[in-house]
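Curious: explain these tokens?
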Amino acid sequence: IPGAGRGAFARRAIEKGEMVVPVPLVHVTDRSVLSTVITTNEEGEETTTTKDQLLVNYCFGHAESSLLLCPMTNAALINHCGSKVAEGDCGPDGPNAMYKWASPSWDKNTTRYVDKSLEDLEAVRIYRALAMEIVALRDIAEGEEIFIDYGEAWEDAWEGHVESWKSSMTGDDDTDDAEHYSLTTLNLDKEKDILLVPGSGGSGDDEEEEEDPLRAEFPAHGGGVFTTCRFRDKLGVCPYRATEVEDWKAASDQEILDLFGTTDGSQFVDLPKTDYWPCSVVSKDAATDGDGATYTVRIFQSDITKEAEWAKANQPCILHSYPRELIRYFPMPYQSDQHLPDAFRHAIEIRDEIFPSQWKNLKAKDEAEEEGESGHGENDENAADGEDADGLADEADAEL
């Protein structure tokens, strides 16, 4: 589905009424703890706003309650299909699954805690109190995507967001910024050449040196992404050079490659897909293309591994013939699309017929405030009536 990102797909045939996936929940009784302060600066004017964090998009909630219920399984990947989009990308029949409170057959807590108050839930800190389950509304074929209905309130909020949203990554003419990249697209398109760090040009002025893939401090790109390479600091891969190199960055590109360039990068193909280190792509090897392309890359020290000897000496680790398939993009911290200040935030709406009334604390609060305002109004009216009566009495005394 365009704009939906990842989704959940059936790995086997699922019959109508069968549970698709269990949904154990983390309960957050005060949703304000998942709010964050965002500061923007436009034309020299700084604005601070409070907005829900990304996690809220994957949680269940109700407009009249401060409670959020956040899934602990891959049920969080299930996309929306509701009444307003039933004729669209998710098919003419609407959602093929729905959520409901967990059955006692596998969860004993939920039936007990849906009758409890929010205060009782707040007291539960060391175990899970609630769970849901996703069940099939009709037979679902193997490979078919699973959909649930997020609710009309969610749909209305999404439509309003689409109508009013304007990308902060567009220029004055509303054209997309060429340096804003879709991370998913970059990682899926293995045929596309790897982005080179802009400004590459050897040792030159300070600005060029900061952006040069051989001499950069970190391999960041202008679109809020950086490149990583599958790598492990095995003995001898990038040995520390004991030669006298007072300032290797002052050398020419070729001198750096000759001095610090090392082994064939294809040896890292069989490493676990979790072994990624930051890297900059220096150049693409001639006569290679598409998924089979190879590159010369510079590895940067990973923050989560033991510091390598070459990193301690502030020397580069350069690999030749490095396979395209081992290079992956990651977002710079807090710079992904989800962290844009105008990104969509809205919880999945829990149907009112299954939502316990005692959890509707925001409704009770609103009613109390309205009652208070109404009481003030009545008191004001009574006071006004009293003043009118006093005025009539004064007039009568004057006539006498």
